[in-house]
Structure formats: structure tokens, C-alpha cells
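Sequence in, structure out. Go.
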Amino acid sequence: MENVVEFFKNLPSKQCTSCGEKIEEQHECYGTQCDSCNEL
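Output:
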């Protein structure tokens, strides 16, 4: 069984669904847009 920490460390970087830029946040979070595109 793979270590949970290693699993999350090895996830690929997320990309913004609007502009395609790499999202600088934890890869396991639910956000799909970068700070620039997010209108919350």
C-alpha cells in the first residue's frame, strides 16, 4: 500500500479551467480556477 503523504506529493499540478495557468495551491483542494480568474 502506498503512503498517503507520498500519494498527494506525487499528484500532478492543477491547471486553471479558464486560462490554463498552473494553480499554486494544494493539489488535493477542490478549486478549479486560479486567483486571477476566480470571481468569489
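Check: Residues 1-40 form one domain. The chain has one domain: 1-40.
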